[in-house]
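Lecture 7, part B: from sequences to assemblies.

Below are the input chains for today's worked example.
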Amino acid sequence: MPRTTIMASAAVLAVALVSLPSAASRVGAGSAATGLTIGNVRIADGRGGALRRGGVRIEGERIVGVGQVKPREGDTVMDGGGLVLAPGFIDIHNHSTTGLTGDPAAETQVAQGITTVVVGADGSSPWPIAAYLAERRSKPAALNVMVMVGHATVRQMVMGSDYKRPARDDEIAKMAALVDQGMREGAIGLSSGLEYEIGSYSETKEVVELAKVAARYGGFYMSHVRDEADKAFEAFREAIQIGEEAKIPVQISHIKLGTVGVWRRAADVVRLIEGARKRGIDVTADCYPYQAWHSTITVLVPNKKYDDPASVKRALDDVGGAANVMIDGDKAHPEYEGKTLDAIAKESGVTPVDVFIQIVKDGGASVIATSMVDEDIRAFYQQPWVMVASDGGIGMRHPRGAGTFPRVLGPFVRERHWLTLPEAVRKMTSAPAARLKLKDRGTIAEGNVADLVLFDPATVVDRSTFKEPFLLPAGISRVFVGGSLVWDQGKPTGALPGKMLQRF
Ligand SMILES: [Zn+2]
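Predicted structure of the full complex, as structure tokens:
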């Protein structure tokens, strides 16, 4: 991380350069600070245009000047050291729903530059929404929070344990009333997780009816679609259909082509979604920057026949073979850890299917499995309607939980040149802000809230791994939420200025 020099001066800036351990100095000795001026930065304003040199001036929680700003009498003055100043990153898919209670400083999140999280994704939300908002307000966090109402959440409330079937019309009406309540109480849209147990039994028309309710309140529909594997195209079509019939904007969560059968077909997905956009359906997506997932070995076999050689073989073929499945933790066989099923099989002189069946019989294991190919991830990130989101959050044992945003800025922007820095910042800021109808966040502009990130584009990088998922990234120098410093050169400040952001 760069050393930061601090500017101190009386009426005129650029008089004395001193290195101080504290954050900044004040203009006009002894006078009360009226604002904060951050000078000597390259501004990525969130709109995707070229960086420009200058600074910003903040009063209270708002940005009051952008460009060639002059500090006023009493201002705190901070030298940005030539780093990039961007709007705070908005994570539209984050699982810190309960994590914020125990970790309000949200270290792994603000360390990435995240200043706003949207929780309640994948169909699962807190309930009641009003109670959640009240709890978050009484226990503020370092960052801002928005909440969705979850389809599976209301589905289970109405159907109880009898959810393994399509809902009847009267049940759909009851769910709709709950979605209505959630939206009135402050949810910003409806989320679904149609690949998960409870949501998977719903028919499309059920989701359409609930999405119509969210649409009435100006909300959007966000979906972990029904299938991210061989039937991904059907699942994307269903999401588009829901948007079309409910007349609601659609956000496809963590867009993915997760099995060999659909790998390298990102161009076809792009064609499908652009076709819908041309027809006037407002479809966008987000994508996390990782090829692999981390879970238990049994999730590889969707039909749950873990001792059936044909089912296991199919499962291993689907992820591109046994070389793509690495054992991460195995109590019965610690000697397997760090090895792929393929390598273990070769060493033991048996087949990978045999190894899989034995591991499950002996108590199971955690695995890291490849589910995406880089060229699909790159193709998605190169679409203007694809945002960066983590699908992570506090306590997430996948490296995306602590690494997503720096991983895009470092490896993807600086090293591989998949996208430009201003475009990457746009995908983290104004693009999600537009989807969330956040009118005064997501860009650096006069009058906007001062949610800001100062980072070094030459060094920013993720450091979290599957082995060490909580390693904090490097290169994120400072993070401000509502004008308050929450992250200062490697440490949370303890400030908790985050707000619950409600509808529009
Ligand atoms: Zn999901």
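Note for the exam: Residues 407 and 462 are 5 Å apart (CA to CA). Keep this in mind when comparing with the next example.
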